Amino acid sequence: FSLLQSPSSLLQSASVCCSRQSAVSCDSYKSTGLYLPPLGQCQYYHFISYCVIIVTFRPHLPFAVPEPFFDLYPDASELPGPKFPNVTINAPLVAWHGGLHGNSFNNSLPDIQSQKLRKGYYAAVSYTDSLVGQLLDKLDELNLTSNTIVALWGDHGWQLGETNLWKKMTNYERGTRVPLFIRAPWKSNSIGIKTSALASSVDMYKTLASLAGLPEPEATVQGQDLSAILDQPPLTGTGINSYAFSQFAKQRISDGNPFGVCTQCQRNQIDFMGYAVRDDLFRYVLWVHWNKTSLLPIWTNIEGEELYPHDNDHGDDFDAFETINLVHASKYQSDRQRLQAVVIDHFSHDH
Q1: Residue 96 exposed, middle or buried by CB count within 10 Å (0-12, 13-18, 19+)
Q2: DSSP H helical segments within 31-110, as ranges?
Q3: In terms of Cα–Cα distance, which of 152, 144, 148, 155 is closest to 211?
Q4: E strands of the chain, at which residues?
Q5: How far apart, in whole angstroms, are the C-alpha atoms of residue 99 and residue 108?
Q6: What string of pLDDT tens digits covers the 351 residues of the chain?
Q7: Which of 314, 331, 339 lies closest to 244, judged by CA?
Q8: Which end of the chain has less Cβ packing within 10 Å, N or C?
Q9: Which residues lie closer than 8 Å to 177 by C-beta, 6 or more apart?
Q10: Residue 16: which of 46, 51, 56, 57 has the closest Cα?
């Protein structure tokens, strides 16, 4: 099977450029599914600099991957289903959306259906893992490992039936948290270390520019340079970022319930916007009505709020958190007010 099956015809032709001090050779290769071998076929093997951007379509739907990756796992009936298959307790209606194969707000998928879908997802993740392994092997083969930065991250999270949610399209931890790996071999203190530091995808541009020794991006570029974290990765606390943010738009659907995801709608078709902030102890989500004329949130017209404690969350059990909305619990009111102010301040400057 191909090392990378391109998800779009836009990627069917790729340009591979190899630089040296006195010349640049840039040859176009028709994609055969192998993304790194052309790099090894370049005229010049001693690079001044290079950047290779690789996109794997899996584990996106459909879960169509070679059969050996399904064989890594037992029969679907033997795999665990969601521990909490019903909707989040006390969550506002606007936070939920329909998912796969006809689940509804009051009815989650049958166990065997959830188990089959989960097996497909596991197989797709293993397939992608094998592609990453082949990429790293190729870097070894070309003697490029010691001076190559490798950064791997996802564009969104994924829900597998927990709290009766599937796919992405939420502000929950499972829908927004992504894997992030950065390997800079000369940053020896970071090797094999899992840090508690908060990071966002928007941080990657500045981080990679810094690690590569490039000029600092202009001030208008958002995000934080995380490269210092690799020198001394914190094991507790949030690191450079005090917060991580996300947002998702929703539309009303025909029965009046605000369940419709707004993945392709225009900004003047949005009915609600959900804004989320995550710190080291909580996830807070504020759902507000959207002004279709000014194209701005109406902060005073609140549709719903959510608050989920994340103390003792080490990132290894996504079933253990965000099952009960505790935004009205008396002991959390100061945290609710604090995080609501953080959300409004951040997103008021981000439109």
Answers
A1: buried
A2: 37-40, 67-70
A3: 148
A4: 13-19, 24-30, 150-153, 159-160, 166-167, 180-183, 244-251, 260-261, 272-278, 282-291, 296-309
A5: 10
A6: 223 333 333 333 333 333 333 232 323 322 333 334 454 554 444 556 778 888 888 998 899 999 999 999 999 999 999 999 999 999 999 999 887 777 888 889 999 999 999 999 999 999 999 999 999 999 999 899 999 999 999 999 999 999 999 999 999 999 999 999 999 999 999 999 999 999 999 999 999 999 999 999 999 999 999 999 999 999 999 999 999 999 999 998 876 677 788 888 899 999 999 999 999 999 999 999 999 999 999 999 999 999 999 998 888 888 889 999 999 999 999 999 999 999 999 999 876
A7: 339
A8: C
A9: 157, 315
A10: 51
Under DSSP, is residue 107 helix (H, G, I), strand (E, B) or coil?
A: strand
Residues in the chain: 351
Q: What is the C-alpha separation between 131 and 155, in angstroms, rounded?
A: 17
Cβ neighbour number for residue 295 with a 10 Å cutoff: 12
Asked if residue 321 lies in contact with residue 255, where contact means CB atoms within 8 angstroms, the answer is no
Provide CB contacts within 8 A for 252, sequence distance 6+. Answer: 258, 260, 271
Of the candidates 217, 238, 212, 215, the residue with the CA atom closest to the CA atom of residue 227: 212
Contact present, 272 and 299 (Cβ < 8 Å) = no
Distance from the first to the final alpha carbon of the chain: 44
- DSSP per-residue string spanning 142-155: TT-GGG--EEEE-S
What are the residues facing 188 on neighbouring strands? none
Burial class (CB in 10 A: 0-12, 13-18, 19+), 165: buried
Two tokens at 36?
A: 């790194």
Give, in order, the Cα–Cα distances in Å from 215 to each of 199, 208, 210, 223: 21, 11, 7, 15
Q: Is 213 exposed, middle or buried (0-12, 13-18, 19+ CB in 10 A)?
A: exposed
